[in-house]
Amino acid sequence: MADYFAMDSRQCAQELDSLRKIYEEYAAKGLKLDMSRGKPAPDQLDLSMDLLTITDYKGETGIDSRNYGNLEGMPEARRFFADILGAQPDEVIVGGNSSLNMMYYLIDLGWRLGFADSPAAWNACGRPKFLCPAPGYDRHFRVTEYFGFELITVPMLPTGPDMDCVEALVKDEAVKGIWCVPLYSNPDGYSYSDETVRRLAAMETAAPDFKIMWDNAYCVHHLTDTHDVILNMLEECRKAGHEDRALMFCSLSKVTFPGAGVAAMAASRRNIDYILKNMFPMIISFDKLNQVRHIRFLKDMDGLAAHMEKHRALLEPKFRAVLAILDEGLSGCGSIARWTKPNGGYFLSLYTLGGCAKRTVQLCREAGVVLTDAGAAYPYGVDPQDSNIRIAPTFPPLDELETASRLLCVCAYRHAGKAIAAAVMSRRFAPGPAPR
After folding, report:
1. What distance in Å separates the CA atoms of residue 308 and residue 303, rounded to the nearest whole number?
2. pTM (two decimals)
3. In the predicted model, what is the mean pLDDT of the chain?
4. What are phi and psi of 166, to 5 degrees?
């Protein structure tokens, strides 16, 4: 595909007519392909089926995992997740299957009561605010939107959130926290630089109880031999004298079974004690039997790494295929598109010509390929540039993924051409100054 900006009007019209025919051929195929969510494919789920055959329910200290008690989690599970999150076992709470559920609970706790370092409940300040690096994870934004927070968009850079912007915004006492996916971010696949982590940990905030919601969801989801590495946020906060600032999360949802994994959080001991105290009226214990099964299955960090290599073998070809098709279909087209090339995680971003993302997604849908709604990765679902499209390569079979990616290129290229042609024509026929 060629560069529209190097074409004259006749060449542009010919190119658009050719693309229309290609698009109609795709539409006639009756495609029903879905790239809308970052779900593991069935062959990835099959990797963990042996998990279901484990029947040893006694913990290493003799705790019967089938029974009540141990709200904080099984000792071996706390140690396992402490190793993942870079914390001490007594700084960890092991929960149920969903880290999002744990995050929701903590936002609810802050909203109703505040935290141990809070002068008052977050809702006492009127309408509290939350920082949302964007594009980011839509489910994070929905949690704080649900509770009535004002969502403040922070531009996402290849090094993490724009820290000049963050440091200016946290001078407002109503700003209570920030959402972060620090390693292989959703959807760009960016990883936070050391400088970004240190600035987040050390910055002075007007709110004494400012919280960093550190969702390290993709901390073991590498796609290359060269793993991105980030600093430990809990440790950096401790060094900076803000030990209670970090609330860190991870889960095994995309390691074993998304609907039946294990989630955990880590924080300062003061935070852990406070959270457990406030969890106590809600639940007697999480699913400790599932915790034991997972530790028996994955064993330790070496076992986890070996298991994730099996995932990589299935996922790397899919990411490689999408990136190759984007290179083939959109490189050399001028400034109408760019895309990220992550070293891990579950997503990548395609950035179309401004004002073209929604229509590109709509064209794909009309031809039988469902993508995440344009704008979904921004607070309130509004991308001010109408440019970002989140691509989720993990779930479709490779042949369907390749077809969907080629159609996406056709739609992005075609609509950009129409937008450029319309802009050129509008300037050509714009009315001149009114006669005197």
Report:
1. 9
2. 0.94
3. 94
4. -60, -50
Type and span of the H or E element at 344:
none
Distance between CA 292 and CA 297 in Å, rounded?
9
Q: Is the peptide bond before 187 cis (omega within 30 degrees of 0)?
A: yes
- Phi, psi dihedrals of residue 86, rounded to the nearest 5°: 75, 45
CB distance 218 to 38 below 8 Å: no
Better-scored residue on pLDDT, 1 or 298 = 298
Place of tokens 């998304």: 258
Beta-carbon contacts of residue 368 (< 8 Å; ≥ 6 apart): 26, 27, 29, 30, 31, 32, 33
User: To 10 degrees, what angle do helices 288-298 and 301-330 make?
Assistant: 80
Beta bridge partners of 161: 156
Residues 6+ apart with CB under 8 A from 83: 300, 301
Q: Give the closest residue to 409 by CA, choosing from 308, 316, 336, 343.
A: 336
C-alpha pair distances (Å), 263 with each of 28, 97, 421, 435: 44, 5, 50, 71
Q: Has residue 340 got a pLDDT over 50?
A: yes
Mean predicted confidence (pLDDT) in 77-83? 98
Helix, strand, or coil (residue 406): helix
